[in-house]
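Moderator note: this is an archived Q&A kept for reference. The question asked for a predicted structure of one protein chain; the sequence and the answer are reproduced below.
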Amino acid sequence: MPNQKILYITTEMYPYQEDTNMAAVVNKMALKMHNEGNDVRVFMPRFGQISERKFQLHEVIRLSGMNIIINDLDQPLIIKVASLPGERLQVYFIDNEEYFKRKQYYVDDEGNPFDDNDERAIFFARGVIETIKKLNWVPDVIHLNGWMSSFVPIYLKTYYESDTYFKDAKIVLSLYNEKDADLDKKIDEKLKFDNISGLKALDNPTIKSFVIESMNYVNTVVKGDEFLDEDLDEAFKETATQKSEYLDVDSINQLY
């Protein structure tokens, strides 16, 4: 079904990340939908390993300049954009010196999770939502990939609940076997600052617990990896949300 507006929110996409299933799948899904005549946009974090020169990223001045308040601190939002190499498909990058300049993704050189991974996810989620509104582009489908994107539906259904901008958008969540890690125990205070409370994930805040939590805030959950880790698979089986087993990329438009 062409002529849909499809928003991919992801933490990974080939060629900006290589050698992961998620990066390959998101690339193929976005390109397939784009080539079938849909209006496709992709949003992802501008992690430090992504070369601005190699991929020709440039700042979008008219979209940058907003501040997002995280835990009572103003953090400047910088938006960069590039075309997928060799394609006319635009990829938007959420950037902030404090959160995304570092060269590692989620853990330091010793393998310890960054203390501010929770704030980075909140900033990314809110940055995407605010930028889409500023673009004045209303998606029909929002497809989430990667744990940071799981904060988007939580925010849309709580903090932005009275905002009608996304009211008709259908949200798809793909589940992947991502490495789990603890999130800052004070995340409850940071979310409370945005009037978000009562989440089950706050009992034991981890990457995986927030992905599982987000299943309650979307329209459809689909397996992004064919075989999920045991606890993720269990949560998939138990969720009351509409769900789909693993679909190859050629069948993904059945969901939309």
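Archived answer notes: The radius of gyration is 17 Å.
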